[in-house]
């Protein structure tokens, strides 16, 4: 008599979720990521000069040198908002910042790197960096956390993620074939030029 054996359970369908051990994404080199961040930082510095040029003459008319604390706070909040929106809006529309655009990289979801970055994940990434780690970076001792965030990708394997990437669930990939790159770069640099020119003209008028 043959021994009865129950039928084998059906094999589940393969998961469509991306898994690091099955696929190796084309990760961006840490040096290129650093260069892109430097480009973005210099661009942001230029953008934040504009609210300062506008607020200071309004707060200290007649060439005075004493600026009320409220004016300083207003300028800081404006610069901080630009800092956040610069990152969030570009990631939501294009999936990359100006620095990444020039160096041919893009941000992608860690679970679906082949898909465009969703706006919610883009704004979440901008909330974790630069906002969270930048604020922490200005505090004594806790600034080491901000430094660790920037350096984390040097030893993180296999995805080369910074801490803000882990918080947002994102990767930074090479993107040599972006078709809208020239339009992206032109729009961002054009907006920057308009802000700087407007701030300079308004400041000259107020003086």
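Q: What amino acid sequence fits the structure above?
A:
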């Amino acid at each position: 008599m043959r021994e009865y054996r129950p039928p084998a359970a059906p094999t589940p369908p393969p998961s469509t979720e991306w898994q690091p051990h099955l696929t190796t994404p084309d990760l961006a080199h840490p040096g290129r990521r650093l260069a892109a961040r430097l480009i973005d930082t210099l661009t942001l510095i230029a953008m934040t000069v504009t609210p300062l040029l506008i607020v200071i003459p309004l707060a200290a008319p007649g060439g005075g040198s004493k600026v009320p604390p409220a004016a300083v706070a207003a300028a800081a909040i404006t610069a901080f908002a630009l800092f956040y929106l610069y990152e969030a809006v570009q990631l939501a529309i294009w999936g990359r910042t100006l620095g990444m655009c020039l160096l041919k990289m893009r941000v992608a979801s860690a679970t679906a790197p082949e898909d465009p970055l969703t706006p919610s994940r883009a704004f979440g990434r901008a909330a974790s960096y630069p906002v969270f780690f930048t604020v922490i970076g200005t505090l004594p001792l806790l600034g080491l956390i901000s430094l660790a965030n920037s350096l984390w990708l040097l030893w993180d394997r296999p995805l080369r993620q910074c801490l803000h990437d882990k918080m947002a669930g994102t990767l930074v990939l090479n993107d040599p074939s972006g078709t809208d790159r020239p339009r992206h770069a032109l729009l961002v640099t054009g907006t920057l030029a308009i802000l700087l020119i407007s701030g300079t003209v308004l400041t000259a008028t107020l003086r």
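Q: And what stands out in the fold?
A: The chain has a mean pLDDT of 79.
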